[in-house]
Inverse folding.
């Protein structure tokens, strides 16, 4: 059970400018400005410690780092992802370095395995969009009607139109949901001011909005550093979706009536929870109530308020997960407790999506054991229990 915590003492919050990750990503981004010749020399210097094992090991390490650079530099040309390569190659080189001290017979094998992981993590898994099916049963819906089908999308992070975004549109058409809910982060952090990224994002959302979705698309903004106040209004202007800005919407479909609450995410639960409370009234006890909010960190407050279902994202489930360890980073104030997937907090069901897109700036455009996902919810009605039953 996740216990509610008070975060008023926190100085830097996830998803905002100035936090530790934000500073690191900007430094990594700056490394991309190094001239190619200087960078090749830097990789050579990084490989020299391996000469303590053998010069062959050092030379092999240098060649594999150059190979990593070639793999990552090819991503934009093949329209897979559009991030900087050099900082990531340095990180990969540092990870390769200890293995250069293995017995010479093993060095080549282990470095080849490393290249395989790089190729899979950067080229394959980010494109392996999956559909996660979830079921929820509630007495707040009438069991005599068909289940309510809701598709949850999150963290689009558009850089350019790629096959992944085309797959989102194709799968949405195939799944035929009654309603689509988007939990924030439209553009990639590296491309917020980029007119091509903005145009591609609008094209994706327009095509989604033109699909036969009876209740349409409801969306909220994500992190303040990504979905900026000066960008989002122009980005969403005239699009076939409804942007929820601190409001509650009552929807009816196939005999079901339910509420969706949506508000902007400040990443400060103590500021945003009162906004949710202000949207609630006595109908909360009668109607299914869904909270659409970018970060999972509001879930303990939402549980206290009696919300039934919260759909969130932001964490990307860490994007890179290690077997037996999990995510290297979580992006949540509650750490691993709310990092991804389905959680139950008293009467609240929370789902934190792994997201669709990739982190921006100097962060690796990589996914490992963490494929992108969209989530189809089937919400079924149940008979209400009466006193004494």
């Amino acid at each position: 059970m996740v216990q509610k915590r008070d975060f008023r003492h926190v100085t830097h919050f996830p998803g905002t400018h100035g936090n530790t990750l934000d500073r690191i990503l900007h430094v990594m981004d700056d490394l991309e400005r190094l001239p190619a010749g200087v960078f090749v020399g830097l990789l050579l210097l990084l490989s020299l410690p391996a000469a303590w094992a053998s010069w062959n090991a050092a030379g092999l390490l240098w060649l594999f780092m150059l190979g990593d650079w070639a793999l990552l530099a090819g991503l934009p040309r093949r329209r897979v992802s559009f991030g900087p390569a050099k900082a990531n190659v340095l990180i990969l080189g540092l990870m390769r370095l200890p293995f250069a001290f293995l017995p010479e017979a093993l060095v080549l094998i282990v470095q080849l395995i490393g290249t395989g992981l790089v190729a899979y993590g950067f080229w394959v898994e980010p494109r392996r969009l999956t559909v996660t099916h979830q079921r929820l049963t509630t007495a707040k819906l009438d069991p005599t009607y068909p289940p309510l089908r809701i598709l949850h999308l999150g963290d689009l992070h558009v850089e350019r139109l790629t096959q992944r975004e085309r797959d989102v549109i194709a799968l949405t058409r195939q799944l035929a949901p009654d309603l689509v809910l988007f939990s924030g982060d439209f553009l990639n952090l590296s491309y917020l001011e980029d007119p091509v990224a903005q145009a591609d994002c609008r094209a994706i959302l327009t095509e989604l909005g033109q699909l036969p979705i009876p209740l349409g698309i409801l969306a909220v903004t994500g992190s303040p550093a990504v979905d900026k106040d000066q960008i989002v209004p122009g980005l969403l202007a005239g699009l076939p979706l409804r942007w929820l800005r601190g409001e509650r919407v009552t929807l009816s479909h196939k005999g079901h009536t339910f509420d969706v609450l949506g508000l902007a995410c400040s990443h400060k639960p103590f500021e945003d929870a009162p906004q949710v409370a202000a949207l609630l009234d006595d109908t909360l006890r009668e109607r299914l109530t869904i909270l659409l909010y970018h970060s999972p960190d509001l879930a303990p407050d939402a549980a206290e308020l009696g919300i039934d279902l919260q759909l969130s994202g932001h964490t990307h489930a860490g994007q890179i997960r290690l077997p037996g360890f999990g995510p290297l980073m979580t992006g949540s104030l509650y750490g691993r407790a709310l990092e991804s997937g389905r959680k139950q907090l008293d009467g609240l069901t929370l789902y934190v999506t792994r997201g669709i897109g990739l982190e921006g700036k100097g962060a690796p455009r990589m996914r490992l054991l963490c494929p992108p996902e969209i989530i189809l919810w089937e919400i079924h009605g149940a008979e209400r229990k009466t006193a004494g039953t």
The longest strand covers residues 130-138. Residues 130-381 form a domain with the Purple Acid Phosphatase; chain A, domain 2 fold (CATH 3.60.21.10). The chain has a mean pLDDT of 94.
